[in-house]
Every structure is written in C-alpha cells, then in structure tokens.
Specification:
- This protein is α+β, with helices and mostly antiparallel strands.
- Helices cover 41% and strands 10% of the residues.
C-alpha cells in the first residue's frame, strides 16, 4: 500500500472527503486501502480518504490515473494483503476508467497534449543548414537543452529566456554572415598533398611527429601526449575538409590482422590540449586509401597514432617531451604500427555548393534577382520557408517593411535582405512550432513529421503535399514515412533518437578505471556507439521484430570490439563494422547486451542492478519507475568485489518502502550483472573477477523465474506487445514533444496490433495515430 501512497503523494492536495466518491470506488478503497491510508495512519503522508474524486482538476486527475494503473497492473493492493475478487476488481476499474478517460480527453481537446515547444539546438542547427545551405557548427554556441521524460524535444522541460533569445540572435548572425559571405565572395579553395617526408617535419617545440622510413610515414604506439601530430597539415580556416590517407597499411598486426588507430585534429600543444575525433583507422596488411570528412578549426593540425590499449607500447627514444627514431627500427623490434604514403586535404562544403547556396538564399533568380523591386517577394519567400507554412501578406509585412526601410537608409539590396532574414530567424514562428489544439493542419503535420524523422524542416516534397492538403490522407502520409526513413537524412534521426532514448549522449560521462579495465580505449568506445546505431538502423530499415531489443542472432562488430568483448567470432579484417551472425550460445544477442548500453548504465568502476534495472524498465520494457522515497540511501557497490551487490540489495529490500518497486527494478538488473562496466562478460566481481560470484537469477514481477541472462531474454522475447508499446511510447514522446496521456493508451494498443510488433511499422503506425496527428 505504501507504494500507492508514494505515487499519489506527488503533487496531490487532499481537501475533500470520501463521500463524493462513486459507490464502487468508495467500497473498494474502504475495504482495501484505508487501513494504511486514512487520516490516522497516513502511510507515506497520504490520507486517501481526503482525495476527492474530481477528474476535471488536473492534479487529482493525474493521481486517480496512477491509482487506476497500479490496481490494473496488479501492484496494488500489495501481494501480502488480501486480494480483491475478480468481479470486484473489474467493477472498480470500470467505474474509474470511464470518467478518467472523458476528463483526460476533454482536457486534451481544449488545451492540447503538447505544450508549445521550440526547436532544440540540434534541430536549430540542422534547420539553418538546410534553409541557408551552410555547414558551420552552431549548436555548441547555444545553451544545452534539458531533457524531460527522457527527451530534449519535450516542451515541458524547455525554456526560452532572454539569455537564450540573445544567443539565438548571435547564432543567426553567424549563420547569415557565413551564407552571405559565401554567396557574395565565393568559396575559397584549399587542396594540398602532404608527402611522408613533409609530414615528418616539425620546426617548433619538441618533435612528436611520425617516423619517416622507406618513403612512408609510420606511427607507433607511443603514449606521449600529441605524438603523431603533423604540423604541415594545419588548415588555414575553419571548415569541413576531406582527408585522404593513401596506402594505409598495418605493420606487425596481431592475430586479428588489424592495427587500430585514431585520427584527430587539434592545436596539439599543451596550451590547447583538446583534441577532436575524426575517425577510426583500421590498418591491415593490404594497402588501401581511407577517406574521412570532418570539421576542422583554423590552425588545427592532424594527429594520427595507434590507440589500441592492448598493444605493446614503444618508448619515446629521447629525453623530455621529444620523440626520436634515430638508431632504432620499431618494425624490426616487433611493435605494431600504421604506415601510409601521404595525406590529401581538401576543403569541401557538404551541405551545398555555391550555386545551391545562392538558390536557397535568393530563389531561382539567384543573385541577379536581388533588386529593390524584388525585395518584398524575396522576403516573403524566405519567411514562408523559415516558418514552414505559407505566409500571408499581413504576416510578412513587418519583415518586408524592415527590408524596405533598410533600402531607404542606403543599404544595398543584399544588406536589406540580410536585415529582414535576421528578424525572421529570431521570430517565434521560426523558433517554435505553430500548433493549435485539436487536429493538426497539413503544414503542422509536415513539420512534426520532418523534425521527427529528419531533425529539420520539411523538404520540397513534404511542403508541396502540405500546400495541396494531402498529408491528412493516411496512404499519402504512410508513403512519406517510408520515403523519409529511406533517405540519407534519416541518419540524423537515428543519432538524435538513440542519443536521447538510449542515453548514448552520456557515454563520455564516465571514464572507466584503467587499472581495472585496461583493455578499454577510445577505439572501443567509438565502436560501441557504431554498433548500437547500426543495430537500430538495421531494425528500422529491415522492419525487424521489436523483440530484437532483448535478443537476436546478429549484431554489428569490428575486429577491435569483438576482441574487447572476448567473443570468438569470424570478423573480416579491414571491413570495419560489419553485420555478424551470432551462434546460439552467444552472450551478445539483443540491444540490451551491447557495450554502449552497458557503459551508460555503469559508473566506470562498478555496476548497479538498480541503475541498469531502471534503464531497461523505462527505456526498453515500457515500465515507469517512480522516484525513490525521500530519505532512502542509495546502494553503494563494493568495488573490491568482496560483497555481492545482491546481498546488499536484499537488506535494502527489507525496507517496506523499497520492496514494491524493486520487484520490478531488480530482475533486468540482475540478468545483466554478468557484464562489467565496459561490457565484458564476467562471472565474479572485483579485479579479474576473483571476488564474489555473480548471480544473474531472479523473478520477474509476473512471477516468471530465470536463472540466467538467456532465460530472462527468452521470457521478455515472448512479450513482444509490451516491448512494442514501450518503443511506440518512447518514439511518440520524442516525435511530438510531450509524454502520452491516459486517454492515449488505447490508441497505442491499436497501433501495436496494426504494426504486428515490427520496428519500422511501429514508427509508421505511430505517425498515423491520433497521438501524432493532434496537438
């Protein structure tokens, strides 16, 4: 009963008597609840008899919804208490369900489920890139977005302060400066080839460059900071560059046939130690060119070196901060390295070349069409694109007037356009989503769909369909979902959604203790991210069953990640990340066993079944876990491994305030305890697994016992509907900007049935649902 108390206590005021309750509710509560929650006992501080039945009151509506859910799900009354007969239970739920549904639906009809929300900083960056044709990074210049209900897109957690508006204004200025400068002055070319001999030159400070031998540039596993820096690769301006390493080849590769390194950029001096990841370099015995595209800051250079933590490290060969290869041959000494025959660096503009950029800024007429006579038309055109819907003369008039005023004050037509564009980019119509309560109009549907699947503004096709009023047609809308998920821009969705849904954006929040986990390195971490994003992409593109969240017969690995996991699998050297079939007895099936998930649910030193259990319940299984009661201390794992975390939790669960929640939290956490903080299988705690033995057994809240991870996976794989509901709920929360409500549950159940539990189909049916198509 205490759990009910704790849930109801959140945000509920108790001011009316029990007399107003409908008879079935009053009888049920009197027989099964008030022993613990009357005015005298008040377990958890709740007098349930004072909770008036007033569904039209928002706080009380939410509280009664929680009551319904906990009773419906069998969590209340507690198992140790006398249980109501089935007819009595059904009578209570029926009496409670209908008024709650009506009240919730009425509130949504009047006010909408989704509050007015603004673009996140990621959405803002992609939108300016697509609108203007620029490619400069922008989101790092804006305040971070706070997540609510797990997502940055949720309006409830967003703010729009004067400070934020000022930052948006600054960023809009930078974006417009880049766009107009490129349009008016042209793009500055940059294209160089650096030979191995040139790469080995370094005229300032200590030498930490590559080894030059036999006409090749060689980099070795030397751990000195900034080793592998190449001064000649400094770039003259901030920008995107295409970097090609020629004839990359492994020197003395191990059994896997690959020497792994990392290509980064930076100042490469101690006064500016930050380095920026460009890509993984997997060198094999077969020479091959490798190409990367990356944003590089002005005067930053490239750094390339092996960073596989399992490689034998070479000495610097010199005193102080120098590196020297004089009088020694590291290849003959058996050290692994990466060789190549030179580097090409070319300035590129991945989002739009000069002509496309001019078209986006000035329309089909290009620069020749920018005349005083055309200013009004150009401003209105730009406003319509930026506001993601047609702009009336009245709506566009202030911006046209602004441009005309600038012309009257002696500014050129280009300067006048920029003045108006700046105001447009700071308008609420650009920064926020225009949605009225009720059914969304076609342009609101286009925007919601485009930001859900492309994290940016609608393209020409979507806009045209919206202008023609066709997006409310389910057939047309379903076709657009398929088109957009197939488009390369869907990669943005995969990255944005998985970053938030699976907390992949927190993978850097902890650094594993290298004394305990010596095999973990930047290559492993980057490979983990690639594994999970590739896996989710495969689930969506191939419309795979949602049960792949918990188990599967394949995953995506490269040689380094497979070696880190310790899995004896056939990996093709040099093929990078690849789809790998898993044997029946594999420990790697399903999203939940992947290293990225296991790392973000650990603290770098130890694991906690509670942390992992909450994550798996809320993000994968679709169960909501309420916050812990106040004053209950957290479990601190014994990092020495002498005491099992299960033993500590057993004492914790003796507390009545904790037991009811932990029967749901702990099972998936226990099932995953065989994985350490960096995703490696273990059978015992502590260093080298020599401490207390891991016990992965448990019992699900439904009463199904399991003795191992595999048994738990089998149980959950048979509950596809629950997994599908959980995924659909996560997607709709992300895509619409608000959590689902009580009255949305039947719609979610319907779309789960229609999708047959397949991932891509779930997304399509979610988009076609009322929850997506209404504010």
């Amino acid at each position: 009963m205490l759990r009910l108390c704790l849930i109801l206590a959140l945000g509920t005021s108790f001011v009316r008597s029990m007399a107003a309750l409908p008879a079935p509710l009053r009888t049920f509560i009197d027989q099964h609840c008030v022993d613990c929650h009357d005015a005298d006992v008040k377990k958890g501080g709740l007098d349930l008899t004072a909770l008036s039945f007033d569904p039209l009151d928002g706080a009380r509506l939410k509280s009664w919804q929680h009551v319904f859910e906990r009773v419906r799900d069998g969590e209340m009354p507690p198992k140790k208490k006398p249980q109501p007969a089935q007819p009595e239970l059904e009578s209570f739920l029926t009496a409670l369900r209908e008024p709650l549904l009506k009240a919730d639906a009425a509130d949504i009809a009047a006010n909408g489920r989704v509050q007015s929300r603004r673009l996140t900083r990621t959405e803002y960056e992609h939108t300016l890139h697509d609108l203007l044709g620029i490619d400069i990074p922008l989101k790092s210049l804006l305040p971070e977005d706070r997540a609510s209900h797990g997502f940055e897109t949720v309006a409830e957690g967003q703010q729009l302060s004067h400070h934020q508006l000022a930052r948006y204004l600054d960023v809009a200025d930078q974006a417009l400066s880049e766009a107009f400068n490129r349009a008016l002055k042209g793009d500055k070319p940059f294209n160089i080839h650096c030979t191995p001999k040139e790469l080995a030159k370094f005229t300032r400070g200590n030498y930490r460059g590559p080894d030059f031998r036999d006409g090749k540039s060689l980099s070795w596993p030397i751990t000195l900071q900034f080793f592998g820096r190449m001064k000649v690769t400094e770039v003259p301006d901030d920008g995107w560059y295409r970097i090609t390493l020629h004839d990359v080849q492994a020197v003395n590769p191990g059994p896997g046939g690959v020497v792994w390194g990392v290509l980064r950029s930076g100042v490469c001096y101690s006064n500016a130690p930050m380095l920026y990841h460009i890509g993984l370099v997997g060198a094999t015995t077969t020479p091959r060119d490798m190409t990367f595209e990356a944003w590089i800051q002005k005067d930053h250079m490239l750094e390339l070196r092996p960073q596989d933590a399992t490689l034998k490290r070479a000495q610097t060969g010199a005193n102080g901060g120098n590196v020297s290869f004089e009088g020694r041959d590291l290849a003959r000494q058996g050290f692994a390295g990466i060789a190549h025959t030179g580097i090409d660096i070319q300035r590129i503009h991945p989002n739009a070349g000069p002509e496309l950029l001019k078209k986006r800024l000035f329309g089909e007429g290009g620069m020749e069409g920018v005349t005083p006579e055309n200013i009004g038309r150009l401003v209105t055109r730009f406003a319509s694109k930026a506001f993601r819907r047609p702009v009336t003369n009245e709506q566009g008039a202030p911006y046209v007037t602004m441009a005309q005023k600038a012309l009257g004050e002696g500014e050129t037509p280009f300067e006048a356009l920029r003045t108006a564009y700046r105001a447009i980019l700071c308008s609420p119509r650009f920064l926020t989503f225009t949605e009225a309560p009720g059914a969304l109009d076609d342009h609101a549907i286009a925007s919601r769909l485009s930001y859900a699947l492309w994290v940016s503004m609608p393209d020409y096709k979507l806009t045209t369909l919206a202008n023609e009023g066709k997006l409310k047609d389910p057939v047309v809308l379903a076709e657009q979902v398929e088109r957009m998920l197939t488009d390369p821009k869907a990669k943005r969705f995969i990255e944005s959604f998985t970053d938030q849904w699976l907390k992949l954006n927190q993978i850097d929040f902890t650094n594993p203790d290298n004394r305990l986990y010596r095999g973990f390195d930047p290559i492993v971490q980057e490979s983990m991210l690639l594994e999970t994003r590739s896996y989710v992409t495969e689930m969506i593109q191939k419309d795979l069953s949602i049960t792949h969240l918990v188990d599967s017969d394949f995953t995506f690995l490269n040689e380094r990640l497979a070696r880190h996991y310790g899995d004896d699998l056939k990996i093709e050297a040099g093929d990078g990340l690849q789809k790998v079939a898993l044997p029946p007895a594999s420990r790697r099936g399903g999203l939940v066993t992947q290293g990225a998930i296991l790392k973000v649910t650990a603290d770098g030193t130890s694991t906690s079944p509670v942390v992992r259990g909450v994550f798996i319940n809320e993000r994968i299984l679709g169960n909501h876990i309420p916050p812990p009661p106040p004053g209950i201390p957290a479990i601190e794992p014994d990092i020495r491994g002498a005491t099992s975390i299960r033993d500590q939790l057993a004492k914790h669960r003796n507390n009545e305030s904790c037991a009811s929640c932990h029967q749901t939290i702990d099972p998936p956490g226990f099932a995953l305890e065989n994985y350490d903080p960096v995703g490696v299988w273990r059978t015992g705690y502590g260093k080298d697994g020599k401490g207390a033995k891991v016990d992965p057994s448990g019992t699900t809240p439904e009463g199904d016992a399991f003795a191992s991870l595999a048994a738990w996976q089998k149980i959950q794989s048979q509950r596809a509907d629950g997994l599908a509901r959980g995924f659909a709920t996560q997607f709709l929360t992300y895509a619409t900007g608000a959590p689902l409500r009580f009255s949305n549950e039947s719609a979610v159940d319907q779309l789960v049935r229609q999708s047959k539990g397949n991932t891509r189909s779930l997304i399509r049916e979610a988009v076609l649902s009322e929850a997506f198509l209404r504010k």
